[in-house]
């Protein structure tokens, strides 16, 4: 079981770097991710987070789009949190999605798929870790 999981993770990581965009990201520090489409080829990018160690503190990762232009008939953006009840959100359109907050102790996957078309399609996303106080038991 562990060997299979390790092979799948290795394959996923290799696929990330072969695709030309996306990466493994640490969400412990504020950062940003920006991606744009292309007239030459379609684009599929995937970013995987390194989850923080579970603790009694209530840390969340907040995602905020400052630019978002992903026409629905040309692509979508998917935000998926493993271990948070399988929460998955898919976004498309011209209005930035609402601010999302997900537990920092979950592995988060961000993916964009765009058909060949325009270099203005894409997004700018800013992320930061916020402390919301101790968890109530």
Tally of contiguous helical segments? 1
* Order of helix and strand elements from N to C terminus: HEEEEEEEEE
Radius of gyration (Å): 16 Å
Helix content: 10-25%
| Structural class by secondary-structure content | mainly beta
Q: Mind summarizing the main beta sheet? A: 5 strands, mixed
Amino- and carboxy-terminal Cα gap: 33 Å
Give the amount of beta strand, in percent. over 45%
Mean pLDDT: 80
Strand order, sheet with most strands = 1-3-8-5-6
* Secondary structure tally: strands: 9
Shape: elongated
**pLDDT < 50 runs, ≥5 residues:** 1-19
Could you name the key traits of this structure?
mainly beta; 9 strands; 12% helix; 137 residues; disordered N terminus; four-stranded antiparallel β-sheet
Question: Can you walk through the features of this model?
Answer:
- By secondary structure, the protein is mainly β.
- Helix content is 12%, strand content 50%.
- It is built from 1 helix and 9 strands.
- β5 (75-82) and β6 (88-91) form a beta hairpin.
């Amino acid at each position: 079981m562990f060997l299979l999981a390790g092979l799948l993770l290795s394959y996923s990581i290799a696929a990330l770097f072969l695709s030309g965009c996306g990466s493994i990201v640490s969400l412990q520090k504020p950062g940003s991710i920006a991606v744009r489409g292309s007239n030459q080829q379609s684009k599929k990018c995937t970013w995987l987070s390194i989850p923080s160690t579970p603790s009694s503190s209530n840390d969340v990762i907040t995602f905020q789009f400052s630019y978002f232009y992903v026409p629905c008939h040309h692509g979508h953006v998917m935000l998926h949190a493993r271990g948070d009840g399988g929460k998955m959100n898919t976004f498309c359109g011209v209005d930035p999605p609402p601010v999302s907050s997900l537990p920092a102790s979950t592995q988060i996957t961000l993916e964009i798929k765009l058909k060949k078309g325009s270099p203005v399609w894409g997004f700018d996303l800013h992320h930061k870790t916020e402390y919301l106080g101790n968890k109530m038991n």
